[in-house]
Amino acid sequence: MFKTFQLLKGLSAQHIEAIEQSCTIRRYTSGEFLVHEGDLTSDIYFLTAGDVLLSKAMPETNSHVDFKEMSAGQTFGEMAFMDGSPRSCSVKAIGEVEAYCLSKQALLERADEADDIVEQLQIMIQYQVNEYLRHLSDRHTATLYKRIQELEAEEEKLKKQVRELKIEIDEAKFRKDVNKIVDSDFFQDLTEKAQALRQNNQARR
């Protein structure tokens, strides 16, 4: 069963068996918290049944934000196991949950070659962290590139609207100038003279 966990890829069958035997099996009911944000526990949780919901406290609004679900076959708590840091989020059971919990102390007490196993786990945890950070970087780069394209499209759209508006303004100005000329005394006098000239030409014929 433990061979399917990504965290344990690369470890020998003997070491995986030692980890499994060092774990404590815990079961949780729906809505029960496996860990709370800020807890100073350092176990790694290997989810073997059920789903859990991860949430983060938002002090400014006095609320919690759910941001991720995890299911059987996944692990959490690696950073606390590695450096003893407080839990960065809360984890709550969705339905019935079973987890194998591994503490560093239990591993050191029960397993032969425990130091070697801990070292290999830390290498795998660091690798997973690096992969996650790389994934975030790639995703943010893709998001940034997409946003740049959207901004460029918006800029082109605005330029087109400005050009169209300028044409409309130019046409309106032209019509205003024409009307101004047509309504002027000079143009009216010129029109009257032209009409009189046409009438004289017709009378001569």
Can you put this structure into words, describing what you see?
This protein is α+β, with helices and mostly antiparallel strands and 205 residues long. The chain has 5 helices and 6 strands.
Number of helices: 5
- Principal-axes shape call: rod-shaped
The level of helicity is 40-55%
Low-pLDDT segments: none
The helix/strand order is HEEEEEHEHHH
* Content-based structural category: alpha+beta
* Radius of gyration (Å): 38 Å
Assess the beta-strand content as a share of residues.
Answer: 15-25%
What is the arithmetic mean of pLDDT?
Answer: 81
Ends: how far apart? 116 Å
Number of strands: 6
What is the makeup of the main sheet?
6 strands, antiparallel
